Amino acid sequence: MDFFYIGVMSGSSLDGIDIALLKQDDRSRLLATHYIPMPEDLHAELLGLCSSGVDELARAAIAEQKWCRLVAQGVQTLLEDQNMVPAQIRAIGSHGQTIRHEPARGYSIQIGNPALLAELTEITVVSDFRRRDIAAGGQGAPLVPAFHEALFDDKKDHRAVLNIGGFSNLSLIESDRPVEGFDCGPGNVLLDAWIQSQRHESYDKDGEWAASGEVDQALLQKLLSDQFFLTKGPKSTGREVFNLGWVHHHLFQLPTLTPEDVQATLLELTALTITESLQSAQAITKELLVCGGGAHN
C-alpha cells in the first residue's frame, strides 16, 4: 500500500519554510516541494524570540499562529499543484520553529501549534521531535542524522554528510554501528547576522563579501577559544551561544577591523570548525556529501 506524507521544516537561518510531499511504498520518494520565503516581519519576530525580552509568552503565541497559518497555506498550495486533497495525506511531520535550544538546562523550545495546523489543513500532524531525546539525556539535535542514515544506508563505510544551515552539523555513517551526529558550530548564522548589521543584506551571496576580506588570526583564535569548540560530541548549540553579541564581545578586545575582514574570519571559523570536527570524530572519510544553504557559499 502506498502512503503519502508531508514534511515541514523551518531551520535556524529563519530564511524560509520548506514543504515536501513524499510517497512511501518500499522506499521513500520525493514527489514535490514548495518553498515559502519568510516574511520580513515574521523573521524579525522569530529572531526576537531567540533571546529574552518583554512579554515573551504572548509574542511567541502570536508569532506561532502567523507561522502556522503560513505553513497551512503552503500545504494547500502544494496539494493543489499536485491535484491532491487532504484526505490522501496520511500525516504531516512538522518540526516547528526553534526559538530556544539549551539541552544542558533540559529544554528545547519549538513553536508551531500542531493542533492549529491539523485544524487548518484537515490532516493529522506529528510534531515535538526533540523533547523525548532531551528527557533521556540526549541533545535533541541535530535531527537530520536519522534521515541521513535511512537515505544512505547502503553499507558503505567512512561516509560523512555535512549539513550547513544556520549551524553546521555532521552525520557519520558506518556499516557496523549506529549513525553518529553532532553540531560543529556556526554555519551561516554569524555570517548572516554580520552582513545584516553592516550592509543590511540578508546573506553573503556566494561568500563574495567574505572573499573580499582577509582572515584576522587574532580574532579567529579568540573565537576558537569558546568552550563549545573544545567539547567533544555529542553536542549541539544555538543562537543562545552564537549570536551578534558573541562576535562583538570578541571584537571589543581587539584593534578595529574592517567589516569585510570580520566576515572573512567568521567564514574561516565555519570552515575550520567543520574540518576539525570531522578529522577528530572520523579519522578516515572516503566520501563527504555536503547539503544545506551553506553548500553554495
From TrEMBL:
It comes from Pseudomonas amygdali pv. mori str. 301020. PANTHER family: ANHYDRO-N-ACETYLMURAMIC ACID KINASE. Signal peptide: none annotated. It holds the Pfam family AnmK. Gene3D superfamilies: 3.30.420.40. InterPro entries: Anhydro_N_Ac-Mur_kinase, ATPase_NBD. GO terms for biological process: amino sugar metabolic process; peptidoglycan turnover. GO terms for molecular function: ATP binding; kinase activity; phosphotransferase activity, alcohol group as acceptor. Keywords: Kinase, Transferase. It comes from the Bacteria. This is Anhydro-N-acetylmuramic acid kinase.
